[in-house]
Amino acid sequence: MNVLENDSCFRIRLDFSLSEMDQDVLSFLYLPFLKEDAYSLYLSFYRYNSLLKTSVYERSEEFLSLLGFDVSSFLLARRKLEGVGLLETYRKEEKDERGGRKVTYCYSLFPPASPKKFFNDVLLRSLLAQSVGEKRYISLCSYFKAGEGIPEEGFLNMSCKFNDVYSLSVKDGDVSLSPVLDPMEDKKYKKQFSFDKEKFLSLLKEHQVPLNSLEKSLPDIEDAAVLYGISPEDLLPLILNSTDSSNIFYPQKFLQAVRDFHHYETPIEVSRDTGIAPISDSKIAKVIEGFRSLTPEGYLAIMYNGKPSPYMLEEIEHLRKDLGMENPVINALLDYSLKKTKMEFNTKFIDKVAYTLSANNIQDPYSAMVALSSRDFNVGSYSKNSKTKKENPKEEEEVEEKEVDDLLKDIAL
């Protein structure tokens, strides 16, 4: 569950002390793939346990503020620790004295593996080799040569597994079966599109296109290229076809040409029937990569099984130009909005969600998913206690104007 309730509390369980060797193992063997946030969170949990002995529970919100984490960075760090067995996360939900919801977490911390166990674990050693490279891996091997605490009844184990968080691909001949990068990063997915402006200007000069005719339109041209995933080479003929013999550039003709340009691929995790998997799906890393690999036009084409309508393209252009949203965030926003409105492309709903994300300075797809999921979870729990069901179930089949307004009130962050 990729949600952390602001009013939740937590406590920490551990029954070990970190030896000098344990600290070396953490610093030299785990840190390369945990990275700074997860490494810092582990040590903070370990040190914080002493303080919590005098106070059984601590508020999650205060702890995150102390570490300087936002919710999304905390959840990512926590997943990394869970994936390699350094942490187990338990969650319990119950009623408080007033009948409201009370959420409590218990974080069970585990010591790092001994050097011998670490290098005998094919997943851990392969992850290390993948993270540091063959030369460093061999050096670390040379350097390191010379109890399960489950909380009381009522807690459910919600920890991530190794395969939920980390991805390995093993190839014969690699040192210690060290894997190469997961194929999805280089083969099934394109990397996030970035427009090479210098190359584009060079091509214009090479084809003797006067820059003064395009000067005012260059920012819009660049935005269109990024939004629709068009390379400088493919962009050039669109520019030429939108410029007359007197070197007058026609922006609207160019924009229409860009909209008609088809160039997108379908990642594995996207399908018209199911959309991009929900945030609770164990393949969340591939979902995020799917958001990053597709242009918004490509995402809509997959979801609607055809070329998006002009008014849809105008909406995503508005999100890019007026709100400065990057493609992955636009895709996360579209995915959320379409599911909420049962695949109806409701620009009013999309706009208000977009302005909410913009006001909260959401700049990456994972943060957007966490923010919207968290709010949905809290609103959903509240709604069960405060709202009655409609008498006529057929009224729920369509999202009418009033329903959209009510829904927008619910998702306001």
List the main descriptive attributes of the protein structure presented here.
alpha+beta, two-stranded antiparallel ribbon, 7 strands, globular
What can you see in these coordinates?
With 413 residues, this protein is α+β, with helices and mostly antiparallel strands. A hairpin with a 5-residue loop joins strand 3 and strand 4. The radius of gyration is 25 Å and the shape is globular. The protein is 54% helix and 8% strand. About 11% of the residues have low confidence. The longest helix is centred in the N-terminal third of the chain and has 33 residues. The strands form 2 sheets. The protein has a 5-stranded mixed beta sheet.
In short:
With 413 residues, the protein is α+β, with helices and mostly antiparallel strands. The protein has helices at residues 20-52, 60-67, 71-83, 115-120, 122-132, 134-143, 162-165, 183-188, 197-206, 218-228, 232-241, 251-259, 284-293, 296-304, 310-323, 327-340, 347-359, 365-386, 401-411, and strands spanning 9-13, 58-59, 87-95, 101-109, 156-157, 169-170, 179-180.
